[in-house]
Write a structure and sequence with these properties.
Length: 91
C-alpha cells in the first residue's frame, strides 16, 4: 500500500502517516489519535492501514463476545453456591 499509486487520483504516491481514527461501538466511542495510514501526496486521500482495520475488527468482535459472556455470567451467578471448600488432605 505504501509508496503505491494513489487509488483515488492515480497520480500521487501514498506516504506512511498517522491520522486520528474515530469509531463508535454502540454507546461507546473509540478514539485512536495515531492510527497508521497512508496519505496521497497529491490529492491528500487517506487510506487506513488494512492491518490496523483488521486488528480493530478483531478487537470489536472480542469486546462484543466478552460483554455478552459477562452478561450471561452475571445472570447465572445467583444459581451458584456462594462458597465451596476444597476436599483436600495434606500428607
Ligand atoms: Zn491521490
Amino acid at each position: 500500500m505504501l509508496n503505491e499509486k494513489c487509488e483515488e487520483c492515480g497520480i500521487g504516491r501514498c506516504q506512511a502517516t498517522v491520522v486520528p481514527f474515530l469509531s463508535s461501538m454502540g454507546a461507546r466511542m473509540l478514539v485512536f489519535p495515531n492510527a497508521p495510514a497512508a496519505k496521497c501526496d497529491m490529492c491528500g486521500h487517506v487510506a487506513y492501514d488494512p492491518r490496523f482495520l483488521l486488528a480493530l475488527q478483531q478487537m470489536f468482535t472480542q469486546l462484543q463476545a466478552e460483554s455478552q459472556a459477562a452478561r450471561r455470567r452475571h445472570q447465572r451467578i445467583s444459581d451458584r453456591p456462594s462458597a465451596w471448600t476444597p476436599a483436600r488432605r495434606s500428607g
